[in-house]
Amino acid sequence: MAIDLFADELSRPKPAAHEVGGDLSALSIVELDERIEILEREIDRLKEARGRKEASKDAASAFFRL
């Protein structure tokens, strides 16, 4: 029976690109800028999703008011 030397590495979850509240002291300025960019894109994505849900809710409210 063969032993998989990399099984432990495969089972470990990859760290998130950014962990809210995590230690930032070891990051360089470039790494901090990259994380800011990632988070700004995520904020934009969240705002778009919220806008779609709000539009859907408003459309449903208008339909049922009739």
Helicity level, as a percent range? Answer: 55-70%
The number of distinct β-strands equals: 0
Oligomeric status: single chain
Distance between the termini: 71 Å
Order of helices and strands: HH
What is the beta-strand fraction? Answer: under 5%
- Taking pLDDT < 50 over at least 5 consecutive residues as the criterion, the unreliable ranges are none
Q: What spatial form do the alpha-carbon principal axes imply?
A: elongated
Rounded radius of gyration (Å) = 21 Å
Largest sheet: none
Arithmetic mean of pLDDT: 85
Number of helices: 2
**What structural class do the secondary elements suggest?**
mainly alpha
Notes on the structure:
- The chain has 66 residues and is mostly helical.
- It has a domain of 41 residues.
- Helix content is 64%, strand content 0%.
- It has two helices and no strands.
- It is elongated.
- The protein starts with 6 loop residues before the first helix and ends with a helix.
- The mean pLDDT is 85.
